[in-house]
Each structure stands twice: as C-alpha cells, then as structure tokens.
Amino acid sequence: MDAARLDDALQAAERKMNLHGLVIVRHGYIVQEKYFSGYTVGANHDLFSCTKSFISALMGIAIDKGYVAGISRPVLGFFPEHPFGASDSRKRSLTVENLLTMISGLDWVEGDETYARMYALLDGDWIRFVLDLPMAAEPGTRFSYSSGNSHVLAAIIQKSSGKDLYDFARESLFGPLGITDPRWERDPKGLPIGGWGLRLSPRDMAKLGYLYLHGGLWDGKQVVPAAWVHDSTQPQIRADGGWSYGYQWWVDADVPFFAALGRYGQCIFVVPRLDLVVVFTAHIDSNDQERDLLKNYIIPACTLTGIPR
User: Fold this and answer.
1) Domain coordinates of the chain in residue numbers?
2) Which residues of 227-239 are buried (b: 16+ CB within 10 A; e: fewer)?
3) pTM of the model
C-alpha cells in the first residue's frame, strides 16, 4: 500500500464524512484501521441493509444443505398455511430468485413510512404484510429495492431449516468466521429481521467480505458454496445509480468490485483484483461518498507489488 495515499484517504474522510470506523484489509492483513466519534475496535454497529448480504450467504448455505431446493422455488409454496391477499398468477409465479435480485414485482415502497406501518401491525405478522401486497409488475421484469423481500428470505431459511435463523447463522456462518458477539433485532413474531437489524463490529463485517473475496472459503473450510458466491456477486439486474445487483449484493462492474451497502454509510467493499476489503461504518447521507473515497483514494493506494499469482 502507498502510505501517503492512505493518509490522503483518511484526511479526505475526516474532512467530508462523519465516519465511525474504517478497516482496510489487503492480502489478508489489516493495513489501516481507525475509529472516530467514540467508537472502538470491538464495538458493535448497526449494519442496516448490510444485513441483506448476510441473509444471502445464509440462503446459499441453506440451499447447499438441502433445506431449500433452489432459487427457482415459488415463494408462496413455503407458506401453505397462509392465504395471502391479492394472490394472482403473477404472485404465484414469484420465486426465491426474484426476491434475491429485488425484482419481485411486489408493490413495496422502501422507506420509513413502510417500516412504521410494519412495526405498528396489531398482529405483528410482517411476512403476511409483505406477501399481502398487490403486484405492481410481473416478477423478474423491474428492479425495485425492498427490505420486505429480504425479510421473506429470512423466513424461508428459518422455516425450511427448522432452526431459529439466529441459531442457524451462529452454527453455519458466524461460528466458522469467529464472530462471537452478533446482535440481531427480531420482528414481533420473533424472526430475525432480514432487511436490517444485525449489529457487528467493523472487523466482523470485514470477515464476510474476506470470505467472499476467497470464494466462500475460510481457514480451509468451504463455508459458503463457491458457485453461490460467484453468482451472488455477478450483475444479475441493472439497478440504480450506476450499480447492478446480484443476490443481495451491489455490483460495480466497471471497476470492478461488489459491496454490501447499508443506510447512513455502512459498507463492505470487496475488490477481487486487488485482494482488497474495505469496511466503513458511519452516519452520513449517502454511500456515494465512500464509493468515491474507495475509487479516488484507496484503490489508487494499492500498488501492484506483492499481488499473489
């Protein structure tokens, strides 16, 4: 790493952003780590929508273990006990893959108003709320970002595995990665929230990035299937703001890198060609500031010397 350019990155970050934490990992080593605003190395932080990328990993594991037959499975088939409202041929054709890639067609409006409606539900049934929504488009035809999609994925994993999702995650993902203190908010029915709610330290966030950098392999063990990691981080659908979207991962095909992105500037960036993982925690308006910092300062600070062949 070019130390002077890394210093420039830190100075730019401190000038422009309300950062809480920054961790840069290259070739498996932490080459830069700094905390701000009273945060410390071991402090858990709200991941917001970075949670979705952990849900994706858990879905890949659930499929590999045979709990979920595959991404082409119709979603409503996982909930035969529910007669969901506004159920037409479009909703009946909705698949797991449509949820993963945010092309479900459900008429979900992402934002605080929708979240508030869910928290205020008298019966506390968030899955019914999401799958009762009318269809706004044919599944597979239009990108529409939806935390509701991710929460349904969480329910599918828990229902199919027969295990509490938190316990399943500790057994199959957190445990192998050495993540010892995960916190996860639950919905009123007790299901860990799929679209947000996970709290981890920045170093633990970096572990997911490093796992995916190495095709799902951790310390000689295949934690997430390599094919799933590959497919999850490929551009499956064109999204917004110059991004594409994979399976609950954002993809910048031009650089290229892929990312888990959460509200207020929570980010896990993975740049495979540079063997690089960068984690931000923050309270800022947009992830675009960190994306620019990555492109304009951190990536240029990576020298080619020492890249494994």
Assistant:
1) 3-298
2) ebbebbbbbbbeb
3) 0.96
